[in-house]
Design brief:
The chain has six helices and twelve strands. The protein is α/β, with parallel strands linked by helices and 283 residues long. It has two domains: 31 residues; 250 residues, Alpha/Beta hydrolase fold, catalytic domain (Rossmann fold), CATH 3.40.50.
Length: 283
Amino acid sequence: MNKITYILFITLLIYSCNSEDSVNNTGNLESNNLISTTITIEQELEGGNTILRPVIIQAPDVIDTNKNYPVVFAYHGRGGNNNSWISILGNYTNSGAFIGVYPQGYLESWNLGPEPSNADDVEFTNLIIAELESYNNLNLEKIYAIGVSNGSSMVNKLAIETNHFKAIAPIVSQLIESLPLLESTNPVSVFQVNGAADTSIPIDGGPQFGHVFLDAFESAQIWAFRFNCSENPNTIMLGQDTLYIFDSCDNGKEIRYLRIENGGHNLNLNILFLDVWDFFQRF
Protein backbone atom coordinates (compact mmCIF):
# COMPACT_ATOMS: atom_id res chain seq x y z
CA MET A 1 0.00 0.00 0.00
CA ASN A 2 1.57 3.33 -1.08
CA LYS A 3 1.57 6.40 1.11
CA ILE A 4 -1.36 8.17 -0.63
CA THR A 5 -3.55 5.05 -0.56
CA TYR A 6 -2.75 4.56 3.13
CA ILE A 7 -3.76 8.15 3.97
CA LEU A 8 -7.06 7.79 2.07
CA PHE A 9 -7.78 4.51 3.88
CA ILE A 10 -7.20 6.07 7.32
CA THR A 11 -9.31 9.13 6.40
CA LEU A 12 -12.23 6.95 5.26
CA LEU A 13 -11.96 4.83 8.40
CA ILE A 14 -12.14 7.89 10.67
CA TYR A 15 -15.09 9.31 8.72
CA SER A 16 -16.90 5.98 8.91
CA CYS A 17 -16.45 5.80 12.70
CA ASN A 18 -17.58 9.39 13.18
CA SER A 19 -20.63 8.82 10.99
CA GLU A 20 -21.55 5.71 12.95
CA ASP A 21 -21.22 7.63 16.24
CA SER A 22 -23.42 10.37 14.80
CA VAL A 23 -26.13 7.87 13.84
CA ASN A 24 -25.99 6.21 17.25
CA ASN A 25 -26.23 9.56 19.03
CA THR A 26 -29.21 10.57 16.92
CA GLY A 27 -30.84 7.24 17.64
CA ASN A 28 -30.28 7.67 21.35
CA LEU A 29 -31.77 11.17 21.26
CA GLU A 30 -34.84 10.00 19.37
CA SER A 31 -35.30 7.01 21.66
CA ASN A 32 -35.17 9.38 24.61
CA ASN A 33 -38.31 11.22 23.54
CA LEU A 34 -41.11 10.79 26.06
CA ILE A 35 -44.03 8.80 24.63
CA SER A 36 -47.31 7.53 26.07
CA THR A 37 -46.43 5.04 28.77
CA THR A 38 -46.68 4.35 32.49
CA ILE A 39 -43.57 4.85 34.56
CA THR A 40 -43.07 3.75 38.15
CA ILE A 41 -41.40 5.80 40.85
CA GLU A 42 -39.83 4.02 43.79
CA GLN A 43 -40.41 5.83 47.07
CA GLU A 44 -39.61 5.05 50.66
CA LEU A 45 -42.31 5.70 53.25
CA GLU A 46 -41.83 6.61 56.89
CA GLY A 47 -40.89 3.42 58.68
CA GLY A 48 -38.73 2.18 55.82
CA ASN A 49 -41.32 0.51 53.58
CA THR A 50 -40.68 0.98 49.86
CA ILE A 51 -43.54 1.35 47.39
CA LEU A 52 -43.73 1.58 43.60
CA ARG A 53 -46.01 4.40 42.43
CA PRO A 54 -47.36 4.54 38.88
CA VAL A 55 -47.40 7.71 36.79
CA ILE A 56 -49.32 7.78 33.52
CA ILE A 57 -47.66 9.70 30.68
CA GLN A 58 -49.95 10.80 27.85
CA ALA A 59 -48.30 12.06 24.66
CA PRO A 60 -49.15 12.50 20.96
CA ASP A 61 -49.17 9.30 18.89
CA VAL A 62 -46.57 10.90 16.61
CA ILE A 63 -43.87 12.87 18.42
CA ASP A 64 -42.52 15.99 16.71
CA THR A 65 -38.80 15.60 17.40
CA ASN A 66 -38.27 19.30 16.66
CA LYS A 67 -40.63 20.38 19.42
CA ASN A 68 -40.20 20.67 23.19
CA TYR A 69 -43.64 20.07 24.67
CA PRO A 70 -45.10 21.85 27.70
CA VAL A 71 -46.07 19.56 30.58
CA VAL A 72 -49.35 19.45 32.51
CA PHE A 73 -49.47 17.53 35.80
CA ALA A 74 -52.97 16.43 36.86
CA TYR A 75 -53.87 15.27 40.38
CA HIS A 76 -57.05 13.26 40.98
CA GLY A 77 -59.38 13.64 43.96
CA ARG A 78 -59.48 11.51 47.10
CA GLY A 79 -60.65 7.99 46.29
CA GLY A 80 -59.88 8.63 42.62
CA ASN A 81 -57.48 7.25 40.05
CA ASN A 82 -54.97 8.82 37.70
CA ASN A 83 -56.51 7.16 34.64
CA SER A 84 -59.52 9.49 35.00
CA TRP A 85 -57.45 12.21 33.32
CA ILE A 86 -56.85 10.23 30.12
CA SER A 87 -60.23 11.04 28.57
CA ILE A 88 -60.36 14.59 29.97
CA LEU A 89 -57.02 15.71 28.56
CA GLY A 90 -56.68 13.26 25.66
CA ASN A 91 -57.69 15.73 22.93
CA TYR A 92 -54.97 18.12 24.05
CA THR A 93 -52.20 15.54 24.34
CA ASN A 94 -53.18 13.86 21.06
CA SER A 95 -53.01 17.18 19.24
CA GLY A 96 -49.57 17.92 20.68
CA ALA A 97 -50.64 20.84 22.87
CA PHE A 98 -48.73 19.34 25.82
CA ILE A 99 -47.64 16.09 27.43
CA GLY A 100 -49.83 14.98 30.33
CA VAL A 101 -48.37 13.58 33.56
CA TYR A 102 -50.86 11.88 35.89
CA PRO A 103 -49.44 10.68 39.24
CA GLN A 104 -51.33 8.17 41.38
CA GLY A 105 -52.01 9.07 44.99
CA TYR A 106 -50.94 6.45 47.52
CA LEU A 107 -54.05 4.74 48.92
CA GLU A 108 -55.98 6.90 46.39
CA SER A 109 -55.25 10.14 48.26
CA TRP A 110 -52.73 12.93 48.64
CA ASN A 111 -51.03 13.41 51.99
CA LEU A 112 -52.12 16.76 53.43
CA GLY A 113 -52.24 15.61 57.04
CA PRO A 114 -55.47 13.79 57.98
CA GLU A 115 -55.54 11.59 54.86
CA PRO A 116 -55.26 7.83 54.26
CA SER A 117 -51.83 8.37 52.64
CA ASN A 118 -48.67 8.89 54.66
CA ALA A 119 -46.48 9.30 51.55
CA ASP A 120 -44.45 12.44 51.01
CA ASP A 121 -46.16 13.71 47.85
CA VAL A 122 -43.91 16.75 47.46
CA GLU A 123 -40.98 14.34 47.31
CA PHE A 124 -42.98 12.13 44.91
CA THR A 125 -43.49 15.07 42.55
CA ASN A 126 -39.82 16.02 42.86
CA LEU A 127 -38.86 12.46 41.87
CA ILE A 128 -41.18 12.56 38.84
CA ILE A 129 -39.68 15.83 37.62
CA ALA A 130 -36.17 14.44 38.13
CA GLU A 131 -37.18 11.53 35.89
CA LEU A 132 -38.61 13.90 33.26
CA GLU A 133 -35.28 15.71 33.09
CA SER A 134 -33.79 12.69 31.31
CA TYR A 135 -36.03 13.26 28.26
CA ASN A 136 -35.16 15.65 25.49
CA ASN A 137 -38.58 16.63 24.05
CA LEU A 138 -39.97 18.46 27.09
CA ASN A 139 -40.01 22.16 27.91
CA LEU A 140 -39.44 22.04 31.65
CA GLU A 141 -39.71 25.82 31.80
CA LYS A 142 -43.41 25.39 31.08
CA ILE A 143 -44.84 22.99 33.66
CA TYR A 144 -48.39 23.48 34.92
CA ALA A 145 -50.67 21.62 37.35
CA ILE A 146 -54.38 21.04 37.75
CA GLY A 147 -56.01 19.24 40.66
CA VAL A 148 -59.53 18.47 41.85
CA SER A 149 -60.72 18.32 45.46
CA ASN A 150 -57.96 16.60 47.48
CA GLY A 151 -55.78 16.95 44.37
CA SER A 152 -56.60 20.66 44.33
CA SER A 153 -55.13 21.05 47.81
CA MET A 154 -52.13 19.06 46.62
CA VAL A 155 -51.36 21.51 43.79
CA ASN A 156 -51.75 24.37 46.28
CA LYS A 157 -49.22 22.67 48.56
CA LEU A 158 -46.81 22.13 45.68
CA ALA A 159 -47.10 25.77 44.59
CA ILE A 160 -46.46 26.89 48.16
CA GLU A 161 -43.45 24.65 48.79
CA THR A 162 -41.80 24.24 45.35
CA ASN A 163 -41.01 26.27 42.26
CA HIS A 164 -42.02 23.65 39.69
CA PHE A 165 -45.10 25.26 38.17
CA LYS A 166 -45.67 28.43 36.15
CA ALA A 167 -49.41 28.24 36.84
CA ILE A 168 -51.85 26.02 38.75
CA ALA A 169 -55.59 25.37 38.65
CA PRO A 170 -57.08 24.20 41.97
CA ILE A 171 -60.61 23.02 41.17
CA VAL A 172 -63.41 22.68 43.78
CA SER A 173 -61.14 23.45 46.72
CA GLN A 174 -59.22 26.34 48.21
CA LEU A 175 -56.47 27.03 50.71
CA ILE A 176 -56.64 25.31 54.10
CA GLU A 177 -55.51 26.69 57.45
CA SER A 178 -52.78 24.08 57.88
CA LEU A 179 -51.06 25.14 54.62
CA PRO A 180 -50.32 28.86 54.89
CA LEU A 181 -48.32 30.63 52.20
CA LEU A 182 -44.64 30.94 53.11
CA GLU A 183 -42.06 33.70 52.80
CA SER A 184 -40.25 31.35 50.41
CA THR A 185 -43.34 30.82 48.21
CA ASN A 186 -42.48 31.93 44.68
CA PRO A 187 -44.96 33.89 42.53
CA VAL A 188 -47.24 31.57 40.56
CA SER A 189 -50.39 32.21 38.55
CA VAL A 190 -53.50 30.65 40.08
CA PHE A 191 -56.88 29.89 38.50
CA GLN A 192 -59.12 28.74 41.36
CA VAL A 193 -62.62 27.45 40.60
CA ASN A 194 -65.34 26.72 43.16
CA GLY A 195 -68.98 25.72 42.99
CA ALA A 196 -71.28 27.77 45.23
CA ALA A 197 -73.57 24.73 45.61
CA ASP A 198 -70.70 22.43 46.65
CA THR A 199 -71.85 20.34 49.63
CA SER A 200 -68.49 18.56 50.03
CA ILE A 201 -66.11 21.48 50.48
CA PRO A 202 -67.82 24.62 51.84
CA ILE A 203 -67.28 27.63 49.58
CA ASP A 204 -67.59 29.92 52.63
CA GLY A 205 -64.98 27.92 54.51
CA GLY A 206 -65.10 25.79 57.62
CA PRO A 207 -64.16 22.32 58.88
CA GLN A 208 -64.46 19.30 56.59
CA PHE A 209 -62.51 16.04 56.11
CA GLY A 210 -60.21 16.91 59.01
CA HIS A 211 -59.18 20.25 57.47
CA VAL A 212 -60.32 23.81 58.04
CA PHE A 213 -60.96 25.41 54.66
CA LEU A 214 -60.70 29.14 54.15
CA ASP A 215 -63.45 31.10 52.45
CA ALA A 216 -62.91 30.61 48.71
CA PHE A 217 -62.78 34.31 47.88
CA GLU A 218 -60.44 34.93 50.83
CA SER A 219 -58.23 32.14 49.49
CA ALA A 220 -57.83 34.01 46.19
CA GLN A 221 -57.19 37.26 48.06
CA ILE A 222 -54.39 35.64 50.07
CA TRP A 223 -52.60 34.52 46.90
CA ALA A 224 -53.09 38.00 45.43
CA PHE A 225 -51.82 39.78 48.54
CA ARG A 226 -48.76 37.53 48.77
CA PHE A 227 -47.73 38.40 45.19
CA ASN A 228 -48.57 42.14 45.43
CA CYS A 229 -51.40 41.97 42.92
CA SER A 230 -53.98 44.71 42.43
CA GLU A 231 -55.92 45.12 45.67
CA ASN A 232 -59.35 45.31 44.04
CA PRO A 233 -60.05 42.60 41.47
CA ASN A 234 -61.69 43.16 38.11
CA THR A 235 -65.12 41.56 38.35
CA ILE A 236 -66.70 39.98 35.29
CA MET A 237 -70.20 38.48 35.27
CA LEU A 238 -70.50 35.34 33.16
CA GLY A 239 -74.25 34.82 33.29
CA GLN A 240 -74.91 33.91 36.92
CA ASP A 241 -71.25 33.12 37.56
CA THR A 242 -68.59 35.58 38.69
CA LEU A 243 -64.96 35.79 37.61
CA TYR A 244 -62.57 37.79 39.80
CA ILE A 245 -59.21 38.79 38.29
CA PHE A 246 -56.33 40.07 40.41
CA ASP A 247 -53.73 41.34 37.94
CA SER A 248 -50.49 43.38 38.06
CA CYS A 249 -48.89 40.74 40.29
CA ASP A 250 -45.18 40.15 40.85
CA ASN A 251 -43.32 38.60 37.89
CA GLY A 252 -46.29 39.16 35.58
CA LYS A 253 -48.45 36.61 37.40
CA GLU A 254 -52.22 36.68 37.79
CA ILE A 255 -54.76 35.28 40.27
CA ARG A 256 -58.21 34.30 39.03
CA TYR A 257 -61.18 33.05 41.01
CA LEU A 258 -64.25 31.71 39.25
CA ARG A 259 -67.38 31.24 41.38
CA ILE A 260 -69.91 28.98 39.64
CA GLU A 261 -73.29 29.64 41.26
CA ASN A 262 -75.06 26.37 40.50
CA GLY A 263 -71.91 24.27 40.53
CA GLY A 264 -71.45 21.38 42.91
CA HIS A 265 -68.39 19.30 43.72
CA ASN A 266 -68.35 17.49 40.38
CA LEU A 267 -67.86 20.31 37.88
CA ASN A 268 -67.54 19.49 34.18
CA LEU A 269 -63.77 19.33 33.73
CA ASN A 270 -64.04 18.87 29.97
CA ILE A 271 -65.60 22.33 29.69
CA LEU A 272 -63.54 23.95 32.44
CA PHE A 273 -60.22 22.87 30.99
CA LEU A 274 -60.80 24.96 27.86
CA ASP A 275 -60.39 28.08 30.01
CA VAL A 276 -57.72 26.53 32.22
CA TRP A 277 -55.49 25.71 29.24
CA ASP A 278 -55.96 29.20 27.79
CA PHE A 279 -54.88 30.53 31.19
CA PHE A 280 -51.85 28.23 31.44
CA GLN A 281 -50.57 29.18 27.99
CA ARG A 282 -50.23 32.83 29.01
CA PHE A 283 -47.51 31.93 31.52
